[in-house]
């Protein structure tokens, strides 16, 4: 696993339940603002990483659940977020600005 991926996972593990962040916010916090796609690749790989990485808390810049296709095993990304109190309609977080967690501010 790359050092960049490890750093991504460390940040994602810090996102509190009921909050979300974006691929771009993580990339920016790591000093690689143009690496949003690489953060997405890390999230795709995160389902096999120990300790657990709460990848369901990472969405695109508009609050869209773009990573939902990578959740298998009966529990969807939407269900995981809803269980934490995040309101999702279709594939978009309704109260996105209220639940957005910015690692640049929080860390």
Automatic annotation (TrEMBL):
Name this polypeptide is given: Methylated-DNA-protein-cysteine methyltransferase-like protein
Superkingdom in the source lineage: Bacteria
Gene Ontology terms, MF aspect: methyltransferase activity
Keyword DNA damage listed: yes
One GO process term, biological-process aspect: methylation
UniProt keywords, alphabetically: DNA damage, Methyltransferase, Transferase
NCBIfam families assigned to the protein according to its UniProt record, in alphabetical order: ogt (TIGR00589)
Entries under InterPro entries matching the protein: ATL_DNA_repair, MethylDNA_cys_MeTrfase_DNA-bd, MethylDNA_cys_MeTrfase_DNAb, WH-like_DNA-bd_sf
Residue span(s) of domain Methylated-DNA-[protein]-cysteine S-methyltransferase DNA binding: 3-86
């Amino acid at each position: 696993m790359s050092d960049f991926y490890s750093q991504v996972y460390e940040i994602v593990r810090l996102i509190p339940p009921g909050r979300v962040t974006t691929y771009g916010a993580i990339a920016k916090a790591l000093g690689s603002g143009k690496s949003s796609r690489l953060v997405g690749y890390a999230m795709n790989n995160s389902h096999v990483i120990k300790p657990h990485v709460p990848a369901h808390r990472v969405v695109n810049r508009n609050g869209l659940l773009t990573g939902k296709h990578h959740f298998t095993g009966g529990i969807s990304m939407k269900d995981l977020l809803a269980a934490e109190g995040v309101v999702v309609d279709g594939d978009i977080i309704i109260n996105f600005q209220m639940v957005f967690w910015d690692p640049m501010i929080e860390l």
